[in-house]
Design goal:
Largest sheet: 7 strands, mixed
Order of helices and strands: EHEEHHEEEHEEEHHEEEHHEEHHHH
Strand order of the largest sheet: 5-4-10-11-12-9-13
Number of helices: 12
Number of strands: 14
Helix content: 25-40%
Radius of gyration: 21 Å
Structural class: alpha/beta
Strand content: 15-25%
């Protein structure tokens, strides 16, 4: 069986690794020139009900455990004035350990035979590839998706403005204390400040706005002062996450595919991860991509017929994606609005 994977993200690499575990070789085409060609993003919480299942299927549990950053499952919810509304410590018993995305990706790369990933290999016409199975693991703007679906991502109504503060405990102790040992949520009406404590005292902040895309053209999103003006009256330690950034703020608009995105079976072609079920950031994207990759590999390894394997994988993947889309809508509603903090607290308490 010849398996060709487009995209060396977490979904594509998990697919390649689980195939390798079952003795099935694959080739991964990646347009980027190397694993370090660009930043791989921040922290990921890998869940025991999806992402960790994929790690186990990949035979990398011990390697994964070595990547986990202790204490990062801690969580705080703050009112705009800095009042602590909810706080949960990380006692080590949670099911969502945090790791750095770049470390997780490197773990998967290190587990593959040399030459599996072809760096700097941009595939402009995936339909012309000579292969038995073609998998689009190439993200939101997938080049493989048009082979099975006419769906295109559309703006989802929200966006992040991303900032970073280095060595926060020493330079900005009040800000570091506000974030705590793990994650900070400070939701508000149409906007919010959310932050993670990453490795080495780095605070990674997502300033989220629930606004039309055109609205971001009304001010300079790269100017911390202009961004912070939308948080007048908020606690200084929260505004510090914007004003004291060590990097130029970056706009990250959120896009999504239809919640019910499906396609008719196209022989030998399928999708995993964001290429199949793109949603706004919800804490599940990386986990679902990895589980997609693992389940697709297992389906191919245990079936005597490729089409049967692909159809079985897709049905399970579509059902899982639809449920995640519904859960995401509930989460978004808890983060914005006049009573956003209370909605989020209710959600956390019910969980």
């Amino acid at each position: 069986m010849r398996v060709t994977i487009i995209g060396a993200g977490l979904g594509g690499l998990t697919l390649a690794r689980v195939l390798h575990v079952h003795g099935i070789p694959s080739v991964v085409h990646e347009a980027e020139e190397s694993p370090t060609a660009r930043s791989q993003g921040g922290m990921l919480d890998i869940h025991d009900y999806n992402g960790q299942i994929a790690v186990e299927a990949a035979g990398l549990v011990e390697e994964f455990q070595r990547l986990v950053l202790p204490g990062r499952q801690a969580m705080r919810v703050l009112e705009n004035d800095g009042t602590v509304l909810f706080e949960k410590a990380d006692d080590g018993s949670g099911g969502r350990p945090e790791v750095q995305r770049a470390d997780l990706r490197q773990m998967l790369l290190d587990s593959l035979p040399a030459g599996t990933v072809r760096w700097g290999s941009k595939v402009t016409d995936p339909g012309a590839l000579d292969t038995d199975v073609l998998v689009g693991a190439d993200g939101a703007w997938s080049r493989v998706r048009p082979l099975v679906s006419d769906a295109k991502p559309v703006y989802a109504g929200s966006a992040f403005i991303e900032t970073f503060i280095r060595d926060a405990d020493t330079r900005f102790p009040a800000t570091a204390k506000a974030v705590g040992g793990g994650s900070l949520f400070a939701p508000g009406k149409d906007c919010g400040i959310f932050a993670h404590r990453e490795a080495g005292g780095l605070l990674h902040t997502y300033v989220e706005f629930n606004r039309p895309l055109e609205w971001f053209e009304t001010f300079d999103v790269t100017d911390p002062v202009q961004v912070a003006r939308h948080f007048e009256g908020w606690a200084p330690e929260l505004r510090s996450l914007i004003l004291d950034t060590d990097t130029t703020p970056q706009l990250r608009a959120h896009h999504a595919l239809p919640d019910d995105h499906r396609w008719e079976r196209v022989p030998g072609v399928t999708l995993v991860g964001d290429a199949a079920h793109l949603l706004p950031p919800n804490g599940e994207g990386a986990n679902l991509a990895m589980l997609d990759g693992a389940e697709l590999a297992l389906a191919l390894a245990t079936s005597s017929d490729v089409e049967t394997a692909l159809a079985s994988y897709e049905e399970a993947m579509w059902e899982r994606a639809a449920k995640t889309a519904a859960d995401t809508e509930v989460t978004v509603q808890s983060l914005f609005g006049d009573d956003a903090p209370q909605k989020l607290l209710d959600l956390l308490i019910d969980a």
